[in-house]
Amino acid sequence: MKSCKQLIVCSLAAILLLIPSVSFA
């Protein structure tokens, strides 16, 4: 995977990673 092909995929991945961070924080 060179780079994100779709912004939606990048945003979804970022959200999934941020949700647990906010929950634990």
Protein described:
The protein has 25 residues and is an all-alpha fold. The chain has one helix and no strands. The longest helix has 18 residues. 0% of the residues are buried. The model has no long low-confidence stretch (mean pLDDT 80). It has one domain. Keywords: Membrane, Transmembrane, Transmembrane helix. This is LytB. It comes from Bacillus subtilis.
- Describe the sheet with the most strands: none
The separation of the N and C termini measures 30 Å
Rounded average pLDDT = 80
Number of domains: 1
Q: Please work out how many helical segments DSSP would assign.
A: 1
Low-confidence stretches are none
Helix content: over 70%
Cα Rg: 11 Å
> What class, by secondary structure content?
mainly alpha
Q: Which helices and strands, and how do they pair?
A:
Blueprint: H1 7-24
For this entry, give a set of tags.
25 residues, mainly alpha, 72% helix, elongated, membrane, transmembrane helix, LytB, transmembrane
How would you summarize this macromolecular structure in one to three sentences?
By secondary structure, this protein is an all-alpha fold. The chain contains one helix and no strands.
